[in-house]
Amino acid sequence: MKSELPTELGLRPPARLRTVLAWSALVGACGGLLGFTYLAVLHGCEHVLGPAARDPWLHLLVMAGVGVVIGQLVRMLGSPGDIELLMDNVHVLDNRQADVRQLRSLLPISLLCIASGGGAGPEAPLVQTTGTTAQWFAERLRVSNVDQRMLTIAGMAAAFTVLFGAPIGAAFFALEILHRRGLQYHEALLPAVVASLIGYSVYVAASGLGLTPVWDFAMESEPVPTDLLWAIGAGVVGGAVALAFTNAVELGRRAIAPIPEVWRPALGGLVLGSLALLSPYALTYGKYQINPLLSTAAAPASFFALAALAKFAGTTATVASGWRGGFIIPMFFIGAALGHAFHALVPWTNEAVITCALMAAVNTGVTKTPLGSTLVVSKMVGLALVPTTAIAAVLALLLTHRSGLMSSQRERDEDE
Question: How far apart are CA 332 and CA 356, in angstroms?
Fold first, then answer.
């Protein structure tokens, strides 16, 4: 692998490393502030537009109206782009310019989509925002193409850590999501970790939320050897669910292709509002639904299975109709609900093991992030679940690596 040094700056490798890490720390701090600001505005919008504020029938009209507004904003402000374009810029070292103009469209559109109850979360818009900002910052510094890539990945990692509260897992997430067969830009790992840690510190200081995990699962008993077999089963099931989601989104996109692009979000809003009449779990991206769902006492397996199905349908309709948002947290929700459904059917299994394994497996099957998913999910319970969770995640990756929703995920160029 060739190493490209910023000879125009006259830096030797040790000095270059220190400089890149310093820039990564600054990118991480900016990412933490951007994340705090975006989520603060989002929470304010949710109080006005969220489904909890009104009757489901009335909210059906709100969803349709938001869909119409989204279509008009795209026409007036231009395309908000997507995270795939940012990922493509990371791969291609040809001095592509960061298109910060897309953010003027992305920010209001994504806030409307998520706050009103769309089934996709803030991870994709926020990662696109911080990654694009980091790329723009790197261009101003006139660094080498390789360093520009590392700073862009660092910006993405800062966004992930704001959302998940797991800095190390977020760093791996930012690196793995660029590929379908595992982390490949190894030189960017340390800058990504530095940006994640700084971004996490800034976000915690700004929000005052403390260091507790986003979700908290109680582990009633320690894992036993037979849990490794359950983890294998979770990997197979998670991979199957991920393939089903990928195919469902593609079918949905083809089904609405004849409809003019400006009206697709309105149709999506009608579908989402209609699904919410059947189950409240069809709306929102699920971050604040997971803990209440899993604390439901003595619920039958069908309750959790229907919650997973509703989130599956709501997120599919959201992504297929062009509503902006990410599907990482919804995949975690689906895995958690399926884990509890299985435990309700087979109560002698370790609930935490099954739930975490399925969360990581379903998400990995869609995003191809086995290490990041394992570290993010395992933080909720502890390191004791890393082996079983990793088995499920890696198996799901092996079963789904030929299928994916993000076309920009690809192999590293051997000449880089």
Answer: 9
Domain boundaries, the chain: 13-207, 227-400
For the stretch 35-68, pLDDT in tens is 999 999 999 999 999 998 788 899 999 999 999 9
Rounded-to-integer distance, Cα 14 and Cα 189, Å: 16
Contact 188, 154 (CB under 8 A): yes
CA neighbor of 72 nearest in space, from 111, 105, 119, 114: 105
List Cβ neighbours of 334 (8 Å cut-off, separation of 6 or more). 241, 245, 308, 311, 312, 315, 362
pLDDT tens-digit readout, 233-284: 999 999 999 999 999 999 999 999 999 989 999 999 999 999 999 999 999 9
Query: pLDDT tier at 416 (50, 70, 90 boundaries)?
Result: low
Locate 79 and state its tokens.
């395309």
* CATH of the structural domain 13-207, one choice from 3.40.640.10, 2.40.50.100, 1.10.10.10, 1.10.3080.10: 1.10.3080.10
Domain covering 227-400, topology: Clc chloride channel (1.10.3080)
| pTM metric for this prediction | 0.90
**CA angle (242 as vertex; 240, 245 as ends), nearest 5:** 110
Q: Which residues contact 149 (CB under 8 A, 6 or more apart)?
A: 90, 93, 185, 188
CA 401 remoteness from chain centre:
18
Q: Determine the residue type at 405.
A: L
